[in-house]
Specification:
6% of the residues lie in helices and 52% in strands. By secondary structure, it is mainly beta. The protein has one domain: Beta-galactosidase, Chain A, domain 5. The strands form 3 sheets. It has a 9-stranded antiparallel sheet, covered by helices on one side. Strands 1-2-3-4-5 form a 5-stranded antiparallel sheet, with no helix packed on it. A 5-stranded antiparallel sheet has the order 6-11-18-17-14, with no helix packed on it. The radius of gyration is 17 Å and the shape is globular.
């Protein structure tokens, strides 16, 4: 269940928990646990337009499995972002979150570009309908929709990262100095005008390790066929 206290959002059940600082979406998740196992990767570090400091909130509320957060348009950011954190649950095999990003503006033209960053340890694979391929030292860039699958060094879960094909722009993956990986999904590359709302969907789903490739493929197929989100 969601708890919203002091501008901190926390999802907690016996199976899955994590926390987000609503004013600092660039810091991503903290205190991530799946079946009581702690994971220390940095997930969903959202690089919103404007300065990466405390964000001014205009609204935040819980609606069933959603935490909805709306941010203010400001002098250094010409768009009004909204983030919906939507928890995904499917028995014991899959649990995770869909992040629904929405952008609108009161101006005739603005630049809503966003990067959704993940910093990961362990093995990384590129998953397609044909199977999975281990990613070697990079950097790498994909201009077509792809699914990343992270296999942490320990634990019973892998992590599938994916973006809806209609929203996909670019994915950059590069090794980091601590022998991990940084993955950046790009969104909203084109200018935005008044009266238009654009949305992008990105998922991070923990899947059972013993069938992780098949479950990652299932996540991709289901996301591709999913109806557009209702986020208002």
């Amino acid at each position: 269940m969601w708890r919203l206290e002091s501008e901190q959002g926390r999802w907690q059940t016996t199976q899955f928990q994590f926390q987000v600082d609503l004013r600092r979406p660039d810091r991503g998740w903290s205190d991530v646990r799946v079946d009581q196992k702690a994971y220390t990767d940095h997930l969903f570090e959202l690089q919103l337009p404007g300065e990466a400091n405390d964000q001014a909130l205009t609204d935040s509320y819980v609606r069933q499995s959603d935490l909805v957060v709306t941010y203010a348009q400001s002098s250094d950011r010409t768009v009004l972002p909204q983030i919906v954190w939507r928890v995904i649950r499917d028995g014991q095999l899959r649990v995770g979150v869909e992040c629904i990003l929405s952008m609108q503006t009161s101006l005739l033209a603005s630049h809503p570009g966003v990067s959704i960053r993940f910093r990961l340890a362990g093995e990384l694979l590129n998953v397609s309908a044909a199977g999975a391929e281990r990613i070697a030292s990079g950097p790498h860039r994909w201009d077509e929709p792809t699914v990343l699958l992270q296999r942490p060094d320990k634990g019973e879960h892998s992590l599938a990262l994916l973006m809806h094909p209609a929203d996909f722009v670019r994915l950059d993956v590069c090794p980091t100095a601590d022998e991990g990986w940084q993955a950046d999904f790009a969104a909203f590359p084109e200018s935005l005008e008044k009266g238009v709302i654009r949305r992008a969907r990105v998922q991070a789903v923990y899947v059972s390790r013993h069938a992780d490739v098949e479950l990652a493929q299932l996540c991709a197929n289901e996301l591709k066929e999913a109806a557009p989100p209702l986020t208002t």
